[in-house]
Amino acid sequence: MYHQSKITYKTAILAPLALALMMVAILALNYAKSLGEEVNIEYGRMTSKLEHSIKVLGATNYIFSTYFTNGSPKSTRNIPYNRQTDSEGFCTWFPSQEKMQSAYRTDNKNVLKVNYAVKGLEGSCDPNSPVYQDIESKLTVASSFSFLSELEPYIAGLYYISPKGYMVASPAENVRLLDKNAVPILTHRNYWQNTQDSTNNITLTGPHNDVISGKPILTVSTGLYDNDQFEGVVILDILISKLSLASEPLSKNIRFSPDDERALPSDARMPRPVWIEGVKTNQVMYFQWSWLEEVQGFFNNNIQRLVGILLLYIFTTSIFIYLKLNYERHYFRELSQRDPMTSLLNRRGLELAYKGVIQQEFEGVAIFDIDDFKTINDTYGHDIGDEVICYIGQVLHRNTRASDVVSRFGGEEFVVYMQGSNETKIIDALTRVQKEITKGSHRVMKSGFSVSGGAIIRPTGEKHTFDSLLKEADDKLYVAKQSGKNRVII
Fold it and tell me: Whole-prediction pTM value?
């Protein structure tokens, strides 16, 4: 007999959902792992670029060392410059592109274009002032700034700040934008203070906003000394937004913070101190976590997989619901064909089973009826009567073959349908069933009880209906009842 399906709608929906959520969780873990690997790779790339910036700064150090050792290699009076004084009294020097002599052919002069300038305080345009003469002596060194500052896109600017009151910078617009408000800021930066305390350190400071462009930058700086005489500071500004090669939002979310007593932001993840050999640093790189951006990134990176999981969830849920409905359809169909008390077939079930039996040489139908069942109910109660009915159902089930059809028609009547190749064996089987019921009846009632039966056996080739067989068996049952009961008339 079928049992009602254990698959509920809740199970059909939640079980696939749990599986889908588990798969999404695995995707999320893989995404987080991949993000961590990408961030670490980007940390390495950015550190390499910082190391390269140190080498660029080292090149300027070498140029100045050569200058301090050998002096200016060429008379700077032959280098063409334009000079002008602005309203704040600053004097600006910038090379004249038209007068610059090129070693290339005439049609290739544009290759020699340089991009640097000098800006100094009052007196920088006076040929008789010491500041003017110092600027003039260092102009050959200054011309190399143009080429070094354009080596990499993340180099925002290269500067030389002299304690005598002027600045050499590339690109030139960084100098042109310098005003009196920026001067005290520059001279109070950590790099200016630190370089006057030590002759050996290259220092990486920041992040801070560039006083000229306003963009976040890191600054690499070192002091210049001529025989322990402080000659100023060489500074290289690094544009943080250009350090990363990764696409957004990864690149814009890698931040720098000073490694001091200030706590990192609450959304900082995967912090890593910046360490470069031979450089004094105080920075920490970290990834700024944004739930909104990472959720969007997770969906963008896994859209096909997530759609696949959704389709799998819908498919699996549909399968569960289909199995539940199909199982319950069989269950209710089976339930409509069964007697609820004994689980034997009812009359409808018997008729359907009869149509599906494989034909053999003989067929037989027997009807068994409990003798004096009304008296049993009246004497012992309906509970005992129900136990008697259930007991008969169990005996019939145990003493018939799987190919036999057993049913309860209601009340105290039971019907057994058999087929076989030997008529005698069918008779013996039906007789045995009746005796087995009577033999064990004392297990239900101390006084025991009996059943009577009527049976009809016919060759299957004869033309007759199932109803006609039942009618003939019922007639034989009547004969058994009238003959004294507790017997089978065949």
Answer: 0.63
